[in-house]
Amino acid sequence: MDQARSLGTRRGARQTALKRKEKLIQFLFAAPALIFFIVFIYYPILDLFRISFTDWNAVRTDIEYVGWKNYRWLFAGSGADNLAASLKVTILYTMGELACSLIGGLCLALLFNRMTRYFSVLRGLTVLPKYIAASSSAVVFVWMMNSRQGILTYVMDAIFSTGEIRWLNSMPLALVSLIIFAAWRGMGYAMIIYLSAMRSISQDYYEAAALDGANGVQRFFRITVPMLSPTILFLGVTSFLSSMKVYQSVDVLTEGGPYEATSVIVYWVYELAFRDFRMDRAATVGCVFFIILMILTVLTMKWS
């Protein structure tokens, strides 16, 4: 009896040691990623909040604690109007890009879903802009939107006789041009996701609907769209969050102009930090924007 008990005790101790060893190995594998997140993400975020309570100016070496002064400047001072304007531009851009990318990607997916010849080539050309660096593709887009010799200007003039179009230098069109650029880059990615989801839908649904007399439009809205709803939600959430943080295309295409008409909130943070050298105010705006994004993310995930 005692021998069996001691044998069971040894076996239990051995299993406990193995479990500890497995947990240690798992921790060691996760440690590099954990260290990366702590050093390059979590610590900068926490330090951002600390800076927002100081008067850090990049041209001065002395830094003092000023309490809520920067937040009063942002919500009750001269920064309030800029905050409202930047948020408005950011939301307009996000909604426009979201609608164009999701609807345009769905239209392309419906078109390519029926194609057999040249499918791979056309799909690759459609997705290509997404995987080119935003700054590089923005330079190409600047040439395409040249007010005199750009290909988009040429096409519009040939169809509608519009003449010279100041795509990036006029207030009504600058934001529209940014949305077109974002949709140009995002539709291909949305198309690939839609295609993957479409090809996982069983054809039995469509055959049964056709036997019941449903036409193509009815099959699309009563079968395809409901079956694609998780995909649409996924693309909507990811596109929304990435569009809210847009910076590169604004910097290359419009530099926030004309007259701050395309100054999204991230670009305003950049201007505060590296043009006005007000690191404290840039940190304050960044903190507020971070909180806004966190709230929107939580609400979106809860709603989904």
TrEMBL record:
Superkingdom of this protein's organism: Bacteria
Parts of the chain that traverse the membrane: 24-45, 91-112, 124-145, 165-184, 220-241, 282-301
Domain annotation ABC transmembrane type-1: ranges: 87-300
Protein's membrane topology: Multi-pass membrane protein
Compartments it resides in: Cell membrane
Keyword Membrane assigned: yes
Keywords of the record: Cell membrane, Membrane, Transmembrane, Transmembrane helix, Transport
Listed Gene3D superfamilies: MetI-like
One annotated Gene Ontology cellular component of this protein: plasma membrane
CDD domains registered for this protein in UniProt: TM_PBP2
InterPro entries reported for this sequence: ABC_transporter_permease, MetI-like, MetI-like_sf
Record family assignment: Belongs to the binding-protein-dependent transport system permease family.
Official protein name in the record: Sugar ABC transporter permease
